[in-house]
């Protein structure tokens, strides 16, 4: 499972940016861990909310982008908890974006089939 997560997320796995449990490093960094948790939270919450606007979904990704850009451009160093939190928001946002794309694809496919018959 660890190898799959490392490959799926293309994670750098820096020890200082990863969580540790019982002396062992998580297979992916704090931000990727947050994104993974966000996927599950996004699927779970989509069950209750349905597909939200793609604009709201994109807004969920903004905190991660801001945190990453500020960290890249300045001497600011984000914390692992902040990376986890922004990752969770982004993971949920990505799920909502994928669900939006899927719903639009189904809608378009339905329109095509109805047009043909």
Brief overview:
By secondary structure, the chain is mainly α. The protein is 73% helix and 3% strand.
What does this structure look like?
- Helices cover 73% and strands 3% of the residues.
- The chain is mainly α.
- It has one domain (33-116).
- Strands 1-2 form a two-stranded antiparallel sheet.
- A hairpin with a 2-residue loop joins strand 1 and strand 2 (24-25).
- Helix 2 crosses helix 4 (80-116).
- The termini are far apart.
- The mean pLDDT is 92.
What secondary-structure arrangement, pairings included, does this model have?
Elements: H1 2-9, E1 20-21, E2 24-25, H2 30-49, H3 54-73, H4 80-116
Antiparallel strand pairs: 1-2
Strand content: under 5%
Cα shape: elongated
What pattern of helices and strands is seen along the backbone? HEEHHH
Low-pLDDT segments, ≥5 res: none
Which class of secondary structure composition applies to the elements?
mainly alpha
Distance from first to last alpha carbon: 47 Å
Number of helical elements = 4
Major sheet summary line:
2 strands, antiparallel
* Overall number of strands: 2
Helical content, roughly?
over 70%
Q: What is the topology, as strand order, of the major beta sheet?
A: 1-2
Mean pLDDT: 92
Number of self-contained structural domains: 1
Query: What is the rounded Rg?
Result: 17 Å
What key phrases describe this protein's structure?
2 strands; two-stranded antiparallel ribbon; 117 residues; 4 helices
């Amino acid at each position: 499972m660890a190898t799959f997560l490392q490959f799926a997320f293309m994670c750098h796995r820096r020890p200082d940016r990863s969580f540790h449990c019982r002396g062992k490093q998580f297979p992916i960094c704090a931000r990727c861990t947050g994104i993974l948790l966000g996927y599950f939270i996004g699927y779970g919450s989509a069950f209750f909310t349905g597909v939200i606007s793609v604009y709201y979904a994109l807004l969920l990704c903004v905190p991660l982008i801001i945190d990453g850009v500020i960290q890249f451009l300045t001497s600011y160093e984000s914390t692992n908890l902040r990376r986890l939190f922004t990752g969770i928001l982004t993971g949920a946002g990505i799920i909502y974006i994928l669900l939006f794309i899927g719903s639009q694809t189904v809608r378009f496919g339905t329109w095509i089939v109805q047009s043909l018959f």
